[in-house]
């Protein structure tokens, strides 16, 4: 392997690592939103007057009554906040972008493997890379976030750099 940082093949490899980063990033963000949604659903369901939890003897004690009232307030806030937060709509948007980045990551992995096997960055791979760049542009336009979690991005980028150092890529001689 040649570590020629000016070779055009690095465009493929950089985009591959970027797509991999986006897959992990949007997976983590989606997981966070899903966890929030499930948590809110559980609180709302558990605190409903008709729930089995509402019938527990513990709530009849002075401390239990206080806790039950506090849970009721939390459930009421969750019930009001949930539609405002539009979590199902956000989950759908994240799922869509995540699916797109997974497909892009796979396509770029395929290009990377063909370059390695053929030991050249041929015209066909260059055309496939141009298509991948266009798909990346479409995905970027569908980004469900206006503000990124920079701490999460830094953590994930470091993981990917460790998994895919420059030595993991084949750089053709010409």
How is this structure best described in words?
The chain has helices spanning 9-46, 62-85, 87-118, 123-141, 150-163. It has one domain (9-163). The protein has five helices and no strands. The model has no long low-confidence stretch (mean pLDDT 93). Helices cover 73% and strands 0% of the residues. By secondary structure, it is mainly α.
H-E string: HHHHH
Instruction: State the end-to-end CA separation.
Output: 12 Å
Uncertain runs with pLDDT below 50, 5 residues or more? none
Kindly estimate the percentage of residues that lie in beta strands according to DSSP: under 5%
- How large, in whole angstroms, is the Cα Rg? 24 Å
Tally of distinct domains: 1
Which bin fits the share of residues in helices?
Answer: over 70%
Mean pLDDT: 93
